[in-house]
Amino acid sequence: MSSSIYGDYIKSVIRTVPDWPQPGVNFRDITPLLQNSAAFRKLIDSFVHRYQELEVDAVAAIDARGFIVGAPLAYELGCSFVPVRKKGKLPFRTISETYTLEYGESTVELHADAFREGDRIVLIDDIIATGGTMLAAASLIQRSGGHVVETATILDLPELGGSAKIQEAGYSVFSVCSFTEDE
């Protein structure tokens, strides 16, 4: 796993909200990053610089905060944008993947015709925590004929083990920055 040249700067703009949504949890709030035009530009540039030399057919972004980064990245790379949505949000024929959450299950979906066989995809979301959503989305892409070139996020919480699980499943991981629990 690697990080961006702007990683420390981006990290400094992300707000930590202690004890939210429950006591003992440090919530990493990306809202200040999105509200700061210079920081947001550096964030998007981090991804553009990473992927501009690769042959990428599409950016697939996970509902909903992944869309914030995925759409401008696809635009800058001159490739298509494909949303990976929560169950029941896509209007056409879909394929779905259910995964385990800390307190239950969730399902993500992708249009069945989202990719052509062999399409090269960057899969992006805002954060990697336990890795379940990213792995489910990567599985959907693979099942639809696409090839995940890399999974990417704004920030990684490595102590929760998600990035390690994603790497163990055979996917490369890129995060602009990471936080340990005591930061």
What oligomeric assembly is this protein in? single chain
Q: Assign an overall shape.
A: globular
CATH A-level architecture: 3-Layer(aba) Sandwich
Question: Could you tell me the number of beta strands?
Answer: 9
Report the CATH C-level class.
Alpha Beta
Largest sheet: 7 strands, mixed
Helix content bin: 25-40%
Distance between the termini: 19 Å
Strand content: 25-35%
Structural class: alpha/beta
Number of domains: 1
State the CATH topology. Answer: Rossmann fold
Uncertain runs: none
Strand order of the largest sheet: 5-6-4-3-7-8-9
Protein name: Adenine phosphoribosyltransferase
Main location: cytoplasm
EC number: 2.4.2.7
Family: Belongs to the purine/pyrimidine phosphoribosyltransferase family.
Q: What secondary-structure arrangement, pairings included, does this model have?
A:
Blueprint: H1 7-13, E1 15-18, E2 26-29, H2 31-35, H3 37-51, E3 58-62, H4 65-77, E4 80-86, E5 94-101, E6 104-111, E7 120-128, H5 132-143, E8 147-156, H6 162-168, E9 173-178
Parallel strand pairs: 3-4, 3-7, 7-8, 8-9
Antiparallel strand pairs: 1-2, 4-6, 5-6
Helix pairs in contact: 1-3, 3-4
